[in-house]
Structures are given as C-alpha cells and as structure tokens.
Specification:
The protein is mainly alpha-helical. It is 61% helix and 10% strand. It has twelve helices and three strands; from the N terminus they run ααααααααααβββαα. It comes from Chryseobacterium nakagawai.
C-alpha cells in the first residue's frame, strides 16, 4: 500500500513537470468534470481557444465544435431511439431538438463554467451569447477524439447530460412558433407573422411582430431581432389560444 502511494505521488509530480501551469490547471479542472484523467491535453487546449483575427492559421474551438455537434447528435439520437421504442419520428425529432438546441447547450456550458477554462489570448475576441454552448460542443469533440466513442457516450450520459436531465425536457416548450405551426396545421387554420422595423426614440432599431390568426390580430411583441420578436409574439399568442384550445394538451402525442 505504501509503495502504491509512493508511485502515485511520483507519477503526479512527473505529470506536473511535463505540463505547463496553465495545462495542469486545465487538466485538473477537466478531471473534476469528466471523472477521468484526460490523455491528450492539446485537444482540450484547442477546445478552449478563441478565434484570433490577427492570425491566419489560428487554432480555435470551431473545428472541435463542428465535430462535437455531430457526435452529440448521434449519441442523443441513439439514446432516444432506445428510450422511446413506441415513439414516432416526429416525437423523436422534437425531443432531440429540445436537448441539442442552442439555449439548452448554453445552459449546460454555463452550469459547467466552461468559459473559466478559456485559454489566455493577447487579442481576446468578444464572447458571444452562445459561447458556452459552443464550448460544450467543442468539449464533446475533444472527449470523442481523446477517449473514442464508447467512453465519450458514457461520460455524456453519466456526467454531462444524464437521463434524468433529459426527462425534465420532455414537456418543455422550446419554440412557441413551432408549436403554433404544428397546432395550426392540425386545426387547418392560418397563422401568419407580420414583422417590421421600428426606430425608437434613442434611434435604436427594434422589430415589432404581429401574429394573425386568419383575419384576427391576436398578439404582438417587440425585440432587438426579427427572430426574437416573432418568438416572443408567438409565446403571447400561445398563452391566449391555449386558454381556449388547450394547445399544449393537443400537441403532446407520440
């Protein structure tokens, strides 16, 4: 037992000498998240590097984000296929969308505090609103290359995106606009969105969206982008229509 402790301490000291201070910090923090010692630190260094516009051949998280997106989609698709054997393709697609949509991935990345692992850059890029979700996908890509598929799936389903967390999303509404579209197609009624720009008193550009049900204007909302304004207006229209039509109840079918 004493000999085992000695060799463990020896290997730890040797590892610390082989890694830079920043890499050792990254490795240590990732072990807390993954429950396993990372093998190729260079992958994770890339996964947490921002794009630097001053370099033509800059290494950053984007390639691993691309890979992680596909790997995550495959793992989640297989999990849903096995978990819901009676569900049709439409239901499986909706569930997958709830799990891998940008808002949920951003939350997962924020909960893991992935921005704390970003590498130091001389010219740091402005962090966009989706950076946490992007880094989450880049982390998945790095894990896949470091440990291969089976272990990557194990880490995702046991550590990062557990079945209990997935179950919480089953009744969550991701897109009110999509929900209204599905309902309108079933009911054979016409829902349309009328969106235009508005200049505010402070000269800021806002978008106002009106939701029409046939010839009746049922809701409107404003926001800083057309997409956000339409989703917000759709949410308000949903609450109005749901009181009369029980849209949510009608949409929960396998």
């Amino acid at each position: 037992m004493e000999l085992q402790k000695y060799f463990s301490k020896f290997l730890l000291k040797k590892r610390k000498r082989q890694l830079t201070e920043r890499d050792y910090f990254l490795s240590t923090e990732l072990k807390k998240v993954l429950g396993a010692e990372v093998q190729n630190i260079a992958l994770y260094r890339e996964a947490f590097s921002l794009k630097n516009s001053s370099k033509n051949q800059d290494i950053n998280y984007e390639r691993l984000e691309f890979l992680g997106d596909s790997v995550l989609g495959t793992i989640i698709s297989c999990h849903l296929f096995q978990t819901y054997p009676q569900a049709n393709e439409g239901y499986l697609t909706q569930m997958k969308s709830k799990i891998v949509n940008r808002k949920n991935l951003n939350k997962l990345g924020e909960d893991l505090r992935l921005t704390d692992l970003l590498q130091k850059q001389n010219n740091s890029a402005a962090l966009g609103e989706n950076i946490s979700g992007n880094l989450f996908e880049a982390l998945i890509g790095a894990i896949y290359l470091d440990f291969h598929y089976d272990f990557c799936r194990k880490i995702i389903m046991e550590k990062l995106l557990t079945p209990s967390e997935i179950n919480k999303l089953e009744n969550k509404i991701v897109s009110y606009k999509g929900l209204l579209l599905e309902w309108s197609q079933k009911k054979k009624v016409n829902i349309k969105y009328e969106t235009c720009e508005e200049i505010q008193a402070n000269k800021a550009v806002m978008f106002r969206c009106h939701v029409w049900l046939g010839d009746e204007k049922i809701a409107n909302a404003t926001d800083t982008s057309k997409k956000k304004a339409e989703e917000k207006a759709a949410q308000r229209a949903f609450y109005i229509l749901n009181k009369k039509e029980n849209i949510l109840g009608n949409s929960k079918t396998l």
